[in-house]
Structures are given as C-alpha cells and as structure tokens.
Design a protein that fits this description.
4-stranded mixed beta sheet, 167 residues, single chain, alpha+beta
C-alpha cells in the first residue's frame, strides 16, 4: 500500500449517512443561487429560514436564509445569507494565502463548456492560463460573483489539444 493509499489511523465510531455538504456564506442569496443553478447546474432542492432561536445557539450568529443546491455528481452546496451581510471576500489569489477552506471543486467530463459559461456569466478566471494541464487532468480556477473560488477539474489533461491560454 502506497503512502497515498494508507488506511486511516482512526475509524470513526459511526458512519456518515448522507453525501457531503459545504456551506457558503453569501451577501446576495438571489444572485448566488442563480449563478450556481444556471451556470454550474446545481438546482435548488430546499430552502429554509433558520430562526435566531436556532442560529444563535448553533454558532451561526442569528437568523439566516439557507438554500440547498444539489451538485449533479453528489453532495450539496448550502448558500447561507445572514441578516447582517458579511464582509466582502478578500482576494482569492493566491488560493493558499489564507488558512481554512479555499475553494469548491467540481469534477466534470469536459470543463470547456463550463469555462465558456463562466466567461459569459461574468465570473473571473483565477488561473493563468485559464485551463492548466496537470498530471493527466485539466484544472481551472474561477471566482464566483462574490469572489469565492471555484475549481473545475476534468480528466482530459492528456488530450493532444493545445493548452488554453485565455477564456
């Protein structure tokens, strides 16, 4: 077994029962829902108002609006809008300049149509060139309308076509 394939040192006492979800705090819920639904193809599957009586004790700060978006390949993105708008996102580049969660990754069969859709949706590319070939994959980093970083990945890095240098 290689180092990359090493078994976990600790097995949890229970098993996870649902696909992974990630929460993204947003300033403009309508704008961000439209972007993730129309551009990234993640339909809304649930929405809820979380009252302060739940949000505050849970450490979320107070009342929230939440929209759950289904990622077609599994898992969900929760867009979370607090009553008091959060501060704008700091510069996303370089992505490793800040500790903590840095970006959402979406795996796809061919990222070219998504790159075109992101360009048309006024998203901002964060990688230069826009599509980078790496270890048999192609990757592309983008900022969503509020500056959150999104990574696109496909398995076409060995494709003989030219590397992309612009969107």
């Amino acid at each position: 077994m290689s180092e990359d394939e090493a078994a976990p040192a600790h097995q949890p006492a229970t098993r996870m029962t649902e696909p992974f979800e990630v929460g993204v705090v947003v300033r403009d819920l309508e704008l961000m829902e439209r972007f993730y639904r129309e551009v990234l193809g993640c339909p809304a599957v649930h929405r809820s108002r979380i009252p302060e009586s739940i949000g505050a004790p849970a450490g979320l700060g107070g009342e929230l609006l939440v929209v759950w978006l289904q990622v077609p390949s599994g898992g969900r993105v929760k867009l979370i809008q607090p009553q008091t708008p959060p501060a704008p996102v700091q510069s996303a580049v370089p992505l490793t300049a800040h500790r903590g969660l840095a970006y959402l990754t979406f795996h796809m069969a061919d990222l070219d149509p998504m790159v075109a859709a992101l360009s048309a949706a006024d998203a901002r590319p964060l990688s230069d060139p826009v599509v980078v070939r790496a270890r048999g994959r192609r990757i592309s980093f983008w900022a969503d309308p509020e500056g959150n970083a999104v990574e696109l990945v496909d398995g076409r890095g060995d494709d003989p076509g030219p590397d992309r240098t612009e969107a």
